[in-house]
Amino acid sequence: QGYYLYKDSNGQFSPLVADYNLTFGSLKNIGRGSDLTLPELQQLDPMLHADNAYRPLISKLLSNPYYVKVYLSHLRTILFNEFLSGAYETRAKQLQELIRPILNTDPNRSYPAADFDRSLMATIGKVTQIPGIVEFMNERSRFLKKHPALIVIPPTLTDLKVKKREKFVNTPIEAFNIQVKAAEYTSRVRVFYRFGPQEAYKEATLGDDGQHGDEKAGDLIYGVNIKPNGNNKLEYYLIAENAKLVSHSPENYMFQRHYVSLEELNK
């Protein structure tokens, strides 16, 4: 519930969020009376506060239908890739082993070593009951997997390619021609791109109209031409949208992007 907003040189706001240590069921009061029980926490609606005027940032963001799609898609990705897969538990155990030797020698630690060892799997605490992360997330993951907003299948993107110079053709490739196949019922495909890491991303819409290479109108192969404007390299990611969700390529697009160069395309 505590955060700062930081505006960068490109005019984009990023949140600086506090209290990550309270993420997994430790912050039990949502402003509607007494603290929630463990089952109530495990079944907390992911759209909580979407219409709460006393939570101005989240309520304003989730009043935008497109932002709702993005939020739910990110939540779905985290749910399937980290929690339902068990990857979070593996990582948590690694971190526990990293921390344990230092904790054992800390004279000012807040919890005994026995609580630290149990805290991943089971509830600890006498006055304040703190759920174990695995104990908490096993049930929460099952609840979220069946949630109506998350059972929808996001649009898939496959067969991504950037057109290369054909063999025995002397004419060089002078633009980035991106093509990708989208799932049926995809309503829109966009590319966000830039030519250098200090630039802000530009946006372009891919068309399923047969105007950008080998695709034919209506064949679900979307394409776009991006002029390099004197640049050799392109960094980009794609977003596909249907009626309920969006999907990204790369899926972890905040940390990984696609890269291509004219030099590579003309080999």
> Helical content, roughly?
25-40%
Give the N-terminus to C-terminus distance in angstroms.
52 Å
Biggest β-sheet description: 5 strands, antiparallel
**Element-by-element helix/strand order:** EEHHHHHHEEEEEEEEH
Give the C-alpha Rg: 23 Å
Main features:
3-stranded antiparallel sheet, 10 strands, 267 residues
What's this, in brief?
This protein has 267 residues and is of the alpha+beta class. The chain contains seven helices and ten strands.
What features would you describe in this structure?
By secondary structure, this protein is an alpha+beta fold. It is 27% helix and 21% strand. The chain has helices spanning 38-42, 56-61, 65-83, 87-104, 113-118, 133-145, 262-265, and strands at 3-7, 13-17, 157-162, 176-182, 188-194, 202-205, 221-226, 233-241, 246-249, 258-261. Strands 5, 6, 8, 9 and 10 form a 5-stranded antiparallel sheet that branches. A 3-stranded antiparallel sheet has the order 3-4-7, with no helix packed on it. A two-stranded antiparallel ribbon has the order 1-2. It is elongated, with a radius of gyration of 23 Å. It starts with a strand and ends with a helix. The relative contact order is 0.11.
